[in-house]
Write a structure and sequence with these properties.
The chain has 13 helices and 17 strands. The protein is globular, with a radius of gyration of 20 Å. α1 packs antiparallel against α13. It has two domains: 261 residues, DD-peptidase/beta-lactamase superfamily (Beta-lactamase); 115 residues, no CATH class. By secondary structure, the chain is of the alpha+beta class. 30% of the residues lie in helices and 18% in strands. A hairpin with a 2-residue loop joins β2 and β3. Strands 1, 2, 3, 4, 13, 14, 15, 16 and 17 form a nine-stranded antiparallel β-sheet that branches.
C-alpha cells in the first residue's frame, strides 16, 4: 500500500487514524479478490489529507496501482462536458432556455413514446421542445440503450446504441439518430439518465465551431494543467492504463473484461461527452479543485463563482428530488433527497438516503466504479478510482462517504 499526504491531516480537521480506515476497508476488497486495485484522494481546503493506492492496475501482468495510473472515468466525463457548455453560456452564446433545435435541427420534430412494443411503438408529438437546460439536467426525455428498463431502451438497442455506439458512427451521426428515436417522456417532466450529455457535447461543437476534443484541450485541459486526460490510450498512456474488470457471477471475484477494456486503446470516432475520457487522480483532482474554488485554479479562471454556485443547485422542476422524478433505470446515485444541477447530482437533504454528506454537496461517478464529490460546506473533495463494471456491484460510494466524514473531527 502506498500512502502520501501534503499536510498533517490534524491541521485541517481530519483524524489520521480514522482516515487510515479507508485503506483498511477497501484493502479487504482487493485482498478477497473483489477489486484488482484502487486509488483514493481526499482533500480539505485545497490540501491533500489522504492519498493512497492499493493492489494492482493489471492483475494478470502484476503491475501495481501507482500515483500516475490512468483510469477510464466514463461518466465522470459528464461534468467536464457540462463545464464546457457553461463556458459558452458565460459568453452569451446561448440561453439555458433555448431550444437545441436552433443548432441541432434533427431535434425539431420530436415524438414521445406512449405505448406499444419496441417493434410497434405508438408515439405522440412532444409538447415541449428539448432545451439546453434539459440536456444538462437529464430531463430531456432521452435515454440509454444499456439500461434495459423501458421499451424506449430497446428501441435504442435495436438502432445499435447500447453501452457503445455502432463502430462507424461519429457524434454528429449519433445525434441524428437520437433525434429520430422516440423520447422516453415529455421534456422537462421527469428525470432519466441518458445520452443527453453526448448531445450536449455536440451542441458545444456546433456553437463553438471546434471539435469536442479541441475545445476540451483549449478551454479546460491546458488552462488547468490536466496533461494526463485523454480520449484514448497509446504509448506511455497505454502502459499506465489500468485493466478493466467485472465480477464473476459465481465467485464475486474480479475477472478481466477485455471485450470492453480494449476499446480504450483505440482512437474513438465518436467523441463521447457522456463517457469518453481517460484520466488520472492528479488531473481530476485539479478539475474538482477548480470547482471547489468557484471556477478558478492557479490563476486560470474557467467559470465565475456565481456560475458554479448556480450549476450546483437543484434544477429539477419544483425543486423535487430524483426519487420523485426518476423515470427508472440506472443511475450513479441514490435518489432520496438528491436533486440534480447542471451536470451534477446535488444533495438537498442527506437524511433520506441514510448516507452522510452536506446539503449542497455535488458529485457523480463512472460505470467502472469511479467516483468523486465536492463538499463546499466542509471544503472537502474526495475521489475514488478503480476499474470494475458495473458500478452498482458493491456499495463503494456510500462506504467511502461513511469513512471520510467519520474521519472529519473538527
Amino acid at each position: 500500500m502506498s500512502v502520501a499526504r501534503s499536510i498533517d491531516p490534524d491541521q485541517i480537521g481530519f483524524d489520521p487514524a480514522r482516515l487510515a480506515r479507508i485503506d483498511e476497508h477497501f484493502g479487504r476488497y482487493v485482498d478477497d479478490g473483489r477489486l484488482a486495485g484502487w486509488q483514493v484522494l481526499v482533500t480539505r481546503r485545497g490540501e491533500i489529507a489522504h492519498s493512497s493506492t492499493y493492489g494492482l492496475r493489471d492483475a494478470e501482468a502484476g503491475r501495481p496501482v501507482e500515483a500516475d495510473t490512468l483510469w477510464r472515468i466514463y461518466s465522470m466525463t459528464k461534468p467536464v462536458t457540462s463545464v464546457a457548455a457553461m463556458l459558452l453560456w458565460e459568453e452569451g452564446r446561448f440561453e439555458l432556455t433555448d431550444e437545441i433545435s436552433r443548432w441541432l435541427p434533427e431535434f425539431a420534430d420530436l415524438r414521445v413514446y406512449s405505448k406499444g412494443s419496441a417493434l410497434k411503438p405508438f408515439t405522440v408529438p412532444a409538447v415541449e421542445p428539448i432545451r439546453v437546460w434539459h440536456l444538462l439536467t437529464h430531463t430531456a426525455g432521452l435515454t440509454y440503450g444499456f439500461m434495459q428498463t423501458s421499451v424506449v431502451d430497446g428501441i435504442y438497442r435495436a438502432a445499435g446504441y447500447d453501452l457503445y455506439p455502432p463502430a462507424d458512427v461519429d457524434l454528429a451521426t449519433a445525434c441524428q439518430a437520437f433525434g429520430e428515436l422516440p423520447l422516453l417522456f415529455q421534456p422537462g417532466t421527469a428525470w432519466g439518465y441518458s445520452v443527453a450529455t453526448d448531445v450536449l457535447g455536440r451542441l458545444v461543437e456546433v456553437v463553438s465551431g471546434q471539435s469536442l476534443d479541441a475545445f476540451f484541450a483549449d478551454r479546460i485541459f491546458r488552462p488547468l494543467g490536466m496533461t494526463d486526460t485523454h480520449w484514448w490510450a497509446e504509448g506511455d498512456t497505454a502502459d499506465r492504463l489500468a485493466a478493466l474488470y467485472a465480477p464473476d457471477p459465481r465467485t464475486g471475484r474480479a475477472f478481466r473484461y477485455d471485450k470492453l477494456g480494449a476499446l480504450a486503446y483505440e482512437k474513438p470516432l465518436l467523441l463521447s461527452g457522456g463517457g469518453g475520457l481517460i484520466s488520472s487522480a492528479a488531473d481530476y483532482h485539479r478539475f474538482t479543485q477548480m470547482l471547489l474554488r468557484g471556477g478558478e485554479l492557479d490563476g486560470a479562471r474557467l467559470l465565475g463563482p456565481r456560475t458554479v454556485r448556480f450549476m450546483t443547485r437543484n434544477h429539477l422542476p419544483g425543486g423535487q428530488d430524483l426519487e420523485t422524478l426518476s423515470a427508472g433505470g440506472f443511475a450513479e446515485t441514490t435518489l432520496d433527497g438528491i436533486g440534480f444541477g447542471l451536470g451534477f447530482a446535488v444533495v438537498d437533504d442527506p437524511v433520506p438516503s441514510r448516507v452522510p454528506s452536506s446539503p449542497g454537496e455535488y458529485y457523480w461517478g463512472g460505470v467502472a466504479s469511479t467516483a468523486f464529490w465536492v463538499d463546499p460546506a466542509e471544503e472537502v473533495t474526495a475521489l475514488f478510482f478503480t476499474q470494475l463494471m458495473p458500478s452498482s456491484t458493491y456499495p463503494i460510494r456510500p462506504q467511502l462517504r461513511q469513512l471520510v466524514y467519520s474521519a472529519l473531527v473538527d
